[in-house]
Amino acid sequence: MAHSRNIRTTPVVEGSMTDARELAYQPRRAWTITGLLFVFFLINWGDKAVLGLTAAPMMRELGLSPAQYGLAASAIYFLFSVSGAFGGFLANRIRTTWLITGMALIWSLTQLPMVFSAGFGVLVACRVVLGAAEGPAAPVALHGLMKWFPDTKRNMPNSVFLVGASIGVVVAAPGLAWVAETFGWRWAFGVMGIVGLVWAVIWWIVGGEGPFTGAQPAQPSRRDAAVEGGIRVSYRRIFTSGTWLGATIGAFAVYWGIAIAVTWLPVYLEQGLGYSTLAAGNAVALTALVGAVALFGQGLLSQVLMARGVSSRWARGGVGGGAAVLAALILLVGLQVGGGWHLVLLAVGLQLGVAITAAGPPAIGEIVPVAQRGGALGMHVALQTTAGIAAPYVTGRIVSAVDDPLAGFHTAFAVAAGVILVGGAIALLLMRPQRDAARLGIRLPTPTVVPPQRNS
């Protein structure tokens, strides 16, 4: 069913599992793909961040109120979740390399109209289309990336890929802020469009499909054997499992804070604390760097723990959920202090919990057949990113509702801390991949191996 046009499955028998893994796993090629997808996600988040980084001059030129800007910031998420789910299920049937190329091209084309005399209506329309094309990015790319690594080696490449989001802000914040101040805010959008087009060409030439196609049933049945690519499990059972629910709720909570950091933190720094556009961009870059460290740290720590025999409940669920809980507490403390520590703790509180977004996908990958992994990850990311719709808009309403914008921002940050705290605690309690894999009848990590495939 899934991948029927692209791959010829060759099940690995127990006795040859180690040899088959060594033959299939190609570190150099796998990490080349990881590097390209890292840049892919870097561009993805640069496209998101460009709105926040140009918010102040844009709001002045277009005469936007905080509520209108909040609507424009939320527009990218109007179709983001729906398209994320759809793209995830589509990745079960279509080569991920083709889908990724198409997404990158659409991202680039939606940035270019803003170079010209586009107003509020065009801005909102472009952000809606951009969101529709960016929604499937994470589930499709993660699904494709997992094809290049066996389960025990997926923590670090998944984290490296997701670090692209943080590095995207680190690179984009000062760079796009400089472009906005030097050439005008509209050209910040133009730069992102050009970069995306260049990457799409490189990916079409270099990208490809990996050799690992997933798990086998614990107790093979006649029905299982009839389904190409392994067993199939009811999506209802997958979506009600503790691991899927915990990973999704935890990621939703953390994404609430991330969405605020991307869309409203630059505005807070400029209008609330008096930073210049360039200084705000640099501060946001440093904030995003915390997220990059958290993602790398999660990947490294989880991989080390699993190599030492620690269950994925703690190596993935414990590390990710614990990071979110700690982030919420730090954010609350940061709201009570002033001076330089205020910004430092704010940055850590909004970004440290991002570790759960890296721990969740490989944990979900443990409990679902490969033929359904794209759909499971698509729904995971779709629900996670609904926070991107609510958080910017709610923040805008809170800030607009009070006479003192600074007090409004602090209230919004406190709400974010509460959301992150609850979500992290739920992830800690519910994420138990090995238990859920056993309940769903999945036995890991015996892989099915196919030859790597290029785009051509």
Automatic annotation (TrEMBL):
Query: Locate the Major facilitator superfamily (MFS) profile domain: which residues?
Result: 33-435
PANTHER family hit by this protein: BLR1003 PROTEIN, SOLUTE CARRIER FAMILY 17
Q: Does the keyword Nucleotide-binding apply?
A: no
Q: Which locations, inside or outside the cell, does it occupy?
A: Cell membrane
The cross-references to Gene3D superfamilies, in alphabetical order and at most eight, read: MFS general substrate transporter like domains (1.20.1250.20)
SUPFAM superfamilies tied to this protein? MFS general substrate transporter
- Protein name per Swiss-Prot or TrEMBL: Sugar phosphate permease
Source organism = Saccharopolyspora shandongensis
UniProtKB keywords: Membrane, Transmembrane, Transmembrane helix
Annotated TM spans: 66-91, 98-116, 122-146, 158-179, 185-206, 244-267, 273-296, 317-337, 343-364, 376-395, 407-430
Cellular component annotations (GO), alphabetically ordered? plasma membrane
Query: How is this protein situated with respect to the membrane?
Result: Multi-pass membrane protein
List GO molecular-function terms, semicolon-separated. Answer: transmembrane transporter activity
Q: What does the organism's lineage look like at the top?
A: Bacteria, Bacillati, Actinomycetota, Actinomycetes, Pseudonocardiales
This protein's major location comes to: membrane
Q: Name one Pfam family in it.
A: MFS_1
